[in-house]
Design brief:
This protein is of the alpha/beta class and 498 residues long. The protein contains eleven helices and 27 strands. The structure holds flavin-adenine dinucleotide (FAD). The site of flavin-adenine dinucleotide has 38 residues, from helix 2, strand 2, helix 5 and helix 9. Belongs to the class-I pyridine nucleotide-disulfide oxidoreductase family. PYROXD1 subfamily.
């Protein structure tokens, strides 16, 4: 009898793990679609992240604000959601149950894992190496920055790009393993275009910021938690990323190298190594007087050694799968993400995943690729909820349109940046050609063409071309007769294809 009551209670019971964008969007969507079903949102972080003011910039491009909220706000808006603040430490998939750190057990009918990812550090356990993921890690970073004279940043993705531009008042050595900066997003030409901004003085910060700021104070009792949600677009706006020097940018880029080893001050002093000065500074820091200036030294694979105050490791993320792996035969991808199919379902029954924790393992549309980004976390969370609901109701569901075309709008080095489709010729081999238009300091436009059709675009600056190019990509219009005229600044391309 007790068993059947339990089985009854289980019917339609949804559990979502993770209070980031993916988890919150998933829980909201489930709660709205099934108002009489219980939705548990279990999260390690004290605050959840909700999407507000969703704006459809074009068919595929979207922008939104992010609000950090207490769980009670979500419960107020959706009375069938219960937010539980406690990390999940165990999953018993056979029993359809998750267990939290406090020992509370939650049975589920359908479960969605949205526990995000954490920074992949170049070394773990070194007090001079930090990763940036959540508000706690940013607070630590800010604290160290106050007295810093030199910071070494390792990595070439979005976070490194933003940091290098935003950091002021200290020397920055930027070590990247590629030939050009930002190669996750840019080709060498675009990198060259952006580098000018690093040499220029930064414009004054805008007086207001349209996005919600992230709190940098942990709520009482949660200091030092290592499982917060990832920050996201504009995370640095409103945060003071200034060291004590009275200048803005001072960046030295070391290309095609990685970190060979990290030496503490004492280790460096014992070895007969020469540390190089920052470009433009005369002194060579050998293991004599000035060498002891730096608390930590980094030897790069290009043979150069630099001292610095601390190192930021911005070398990607590792999906947070550990608590869920033990005892469960998940199909996990090489990047550590749990594989999901075109219904966001994992290899285990009734378990779905969305956001940074998962690896999209369906055959994607020719114009889409997964990137662990804020927009995709929202889209996946929303679509996972739809798929969970469809399965519960035993209804068919089609893949959402947002997975047709990769589309992302962001800001780098104070420029608007729009990425569409195969903007970097991803997976196209030599089977493509590029059309370029660049006006220094103003705009950089790159089109990726294949067989006379547009398959990708990178737009830097206020080009106003996104909607037209998005349509041309989506419609796969034959453009072979236009050739380079597509980017002729004297032709109003918008009118042309209206
Ligand atoms: P997260 O936001 O990481 O949320 C994971 C949630 O799971 C958290 O609430 C966490 O507390 C919880 N959790 C973890 N483990 C457990 C557990 N065991 N039990 C219960 N709960 C758990 N993207 C962009 O699109 N544009 C940008 O400009 C951009 N900039 C970024 C800058 C920084 C510094 C960082 C770190 C990321 C940036 N991103 C950006 C990436 C973007 O933030 C992520 O892709 C997105 O937030 C992922 O959302 P998520 O919900 O999957 O994961």
């Amino acid at each position: 009898m007790a068993e059947s009551r339990e089985a009854e209670a289980m019917k339609g019971r949804f559990v979502v793990v993770g209070g980031g964008i993916a988890g919150v969007t998933c829980a909201e969507q489930l709660a709205a679609q099934f108002p009489s079903h219980k939705v548990y949102l279990i999260t390690a972080s004290p605050l959840i992240k909700a999407v507000t003011n969703l704006r459809q910039v074009s068919r595929a491009l979207e922008e939104f604000d992010v609000e950090e909220q207490g769980g009670s706000e979500l419960e107020r808006l959706y009375p069938n959601i219960s937010v539980v603040q406690s990390p999940v430490t165990e999953l018993r998939s056979q029993e359809q149950k998750v267990i939290t750190e406090e020992g509370a057990e939650f049975l589920y009918n359908k479960l969605c894992l949205c526990a995000g990812a954490r920074p992949k550090l170049i070394v773990g356990g070194n007090p001079y190496v930090l990763g940036i993921r959540d508000t706690d890690s940013v607070r630590d970073f800010q604290r160290r920055l106050t007295d810093a004279r030199r910071v070494l940043i390792v990595g070439n993705g979005g976070i490194a790009l933003e940091l290098v531009y935003e950091l002021e008042g200290c020397q920055v050595i930027w070590a990247i393993k590629d030939k050009a900066i930002g190669n996750t997003f840019f080709d060498a030409g675009a990198a060259e275009f952006l580098i000018d901004q690093l040499k220029a003085e930064k414009p004054l910060a805008p007086p207001t910021c349209k996005r919600t700021k992230y709190t940098t104070e942990s709520p009482p009792g949660r200091e030092g938690s290592s499982m917060g949600s990832a920050l996201g677009p504009d995370w640095h706006e409103g945060l003071d990323l200034k060291a004590k020097g009275a200048y803005s940018h001072r960046v030295q880029i070391e290309t095609q190298c990685e970190v060979e080893r990290i030496l503490l001050q004492e280790e460096f002093a014992q070895l007969n190594i020469t540390a190089l000065p920052f470009q433009g500074e005369e002194t060579v820091e050998s293991d004599s007087a000035s060498s002891s200036d730096w608390p930590v030294y980094v030897q790069l694979t290009n043979g150069k050694t630099y001292g610095c105050d601390f190192i930021v490791s911005a070398t990607g993320v590792v999906p947070n799968m550990e608590p869920f792996i033990r005892g469960n035969q998940f199909d996990v991808a090489e990047d550590g993400g749990v594989r999901v199919n075109d219904h966001m379902a994992t290899s285990l029954p009734n378990i779905y995943a969305a956001g940074d924790i998962c690896t999209a393992s369906w055959t994607p549309s020719a114009l889409w690729q997964q990137m662990r980004l804020w927009t995709q976390a929202r889209q996946m969370g929303w679509y996972a909820a739809k798929c969970m609901g469809a399965e519960l109701l035993q209804q068919p569901i089609e893949m959402d349109f947002c997975f047709e075309l990769f589309a992302h709008v962001t800001k780098f080095f104070n420029y608007k940046v729009i990425l569409l489709g195969k903007y970097n010729g991803q997976g196209l081999g030599r089977e493509h050609e590029l059309l370029l238009r660049c006006t220094r300091g103003h705009e950089y436009v790159k089109l990726v063409m294949q067989g006379g059709r547009m398959v990708g675009a990178l737009l830097i600056g206020d080009t106003d071309l996104e909607e037209t190019f998005e349509n041309l990509i989506l419609n796969q219009t034959d453009l072979s007769s236009y050739g380079e005229r597509l980017l002729d600044p004297n032709i109003d391309i918008e009118d042309y294809f209206d």
